[in-house]
């Protein structure tokens, strides 16, 4: 974005951190790490439109190519203090006062071209997430992670080992993570994520369903739901019609019964997916594959939807929308999902203490 020109009266967007950090006051509030996502998508714009108000009471660290923020600095409303990547570890120990901080990911500079899918931008997004994840894993009690949107296609074309934030988080912490999408009162968790539809039936196993229900129930209790009511969707039309049009549902019922014996909540299922969402008596749904869960969520519109990773010993949230290359760089991206994701990250991190 070399053609960007700010007014002469504008404050410089990035200021050096003075004093070496030795006199930084320890803050009780979590440090919010916001990755900018793909720098050619709308991630930098929605981050800039969202971060400012939170910086009044928190240290908000924007991780990603800092040049991608330049067109949007008018939304930040305060200068960004530049800190080196290795200072994130020091920040967890010594604390950071409230404000905005910028961290450039390691590696070669990337050409910022909004709306253009590129391997260079994908690699920068991957390095940014890897850096943020390293900090989160080292100090989960001090950080909350909010990830900006990335696109999987350029990641995979660039040869990067990335199939989604949730899977990488699970491998990093050595746990089984669960993706929970929240759209107002609608909460939908996924048993499987980004796998071919032909592979879904082999993942519909009693043990995996039970483990996912336990993680989902534990996560919902953090939201104040002591005995959450859960609905497990069927895989086949009409939930298999008693085995007449599919037998996968026979593996669901034992998991539901086993979960109910644990007294962690109340699960029902399998319920046909075409009618389950019309009922309002459930606190959350467990969908068996990606589109079965994402279609009803996205009908609410992306502005009020966020993604929360359950099952990891840390806090990670994200907006539910993608990179939106078609509107990137135009200044019209809606930041509400990112703001909501940051708000929930703060709430969940406080509840961990």
3D structure, described in words:
With 353 residues, the protein is of the alpha/beta class. It has two domains: 1-177 and 311-353, Isopropylmalate Dehydrogenase (3-Layer(aba) Sandwich); 185-299, Isopropylmalate Dehydrogenase. It is built from twelve helices and 13 strands. The radius of gyration is 21 Å and the shape is globular. Residues 1-26 have low confidence and may be disordered.
What are the SSEs and their pairings?
Layout (H helix, E strand, L loop, with lengths): L13 E3 L14 E5 L7 H12 L4 E5 L9 H4 L3 E3 L4 H8 L4 E5 L15 H20 L4 E4 L5 H6 L7 H9 L4 E6 L2 E5 L9 H4 L2 H17 L6 E5 L18 H10 L4 E6 L1 H4 L7 E4 L2 H9 L6 E6 L5 E4 L16 H17 L1
Parallel strand pairs: 1-4, 2-3, 2-6, 3-5, 4-5, 6-13, 8-11, 9-10, 9-11
Antiparallel strand pairs: 7-8, 7-12, 12-13
Helix pairs in contact: 1-12, 8-9
Uncertain segments: 1-26
The CATH architecture assignment of the largest domain turns out to be 3-Layer(aba) Sandwich
CATH topology of the largest domain: Isopropylmalate Dehydrogenase
- Describe the main β-sheet briefly: 13 strands, mixed
- Per DSSP, the total helix count is 12
């Amino acid at each position: 974005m070399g053609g960007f020109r700010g007014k002469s009266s504008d404050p410089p967007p990035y200021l050096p951190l003075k004093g070496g950090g030795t006199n930084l006051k320890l803050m009780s509030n979590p440090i919010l790490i916001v990755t900018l996502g793909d720098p050619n998508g709308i991630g930098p714009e929605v981050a800039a439109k969202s971060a400012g108000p939170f910086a009044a009471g928190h240290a908000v660290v924007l991780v990603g190519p800092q040049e991608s923020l330049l067109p949007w600095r008018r939304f930040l409303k305060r200068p960004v203090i530049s800190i080196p990547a290795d200072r994130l570890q020091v920040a967890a120990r010594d604390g950071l006062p409230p404000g905005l901080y910028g961290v450039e990911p390691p590696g070669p500079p990337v050409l910022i071209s909004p709306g253009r899918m590129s391997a260079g931008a994908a690699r920068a997004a991957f390095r940014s997430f890897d850096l943020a994840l390293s900090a989160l894993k080292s100090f989960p009690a001090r950080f909350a992670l909010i990830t900006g949107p990335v696109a999987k296609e350029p990641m995979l074309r660039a040869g990067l080992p990335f199939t989604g934030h949730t899977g990488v988080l699970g491998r990093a912490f050595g746990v089984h993570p669960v993706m929970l999408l929240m759209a107002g009162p609608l909460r939908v968790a996924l048993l499987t994520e980004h796998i071919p539809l032909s592979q879904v039936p082999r993942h519909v196993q009693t043990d995996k369903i039970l483990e996912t229900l336990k993680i989902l129930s534990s996560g919902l209790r953090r939201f104040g739901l002591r005995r959450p009511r859960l609905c497990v969707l069927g895989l086949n039309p009409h939930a298999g019609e008693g085995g007449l049009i599919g037998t996968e549902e026979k593996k669901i019922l034992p998991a539901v019964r086993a979960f109910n014996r644990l007294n962690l909540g109340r699960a029902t299922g399998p319920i046909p997916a075409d009618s389950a969402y019309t009922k309002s008596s459930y606190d959350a749904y467990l969908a068996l594959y990606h589109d079965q869960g994402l279609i009803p969520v996205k009908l609410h519109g992306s502005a009020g939807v966020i993604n929360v990773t359950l099952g990891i010993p840390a806090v990670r949230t994200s907006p539910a929308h993608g990179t939106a290359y078609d509107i990137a760089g135009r200044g019209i991206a809606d930041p509400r999902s990112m703001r909501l994701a940051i708000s929930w990250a703060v709430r969940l991190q406080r509840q961990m203490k």
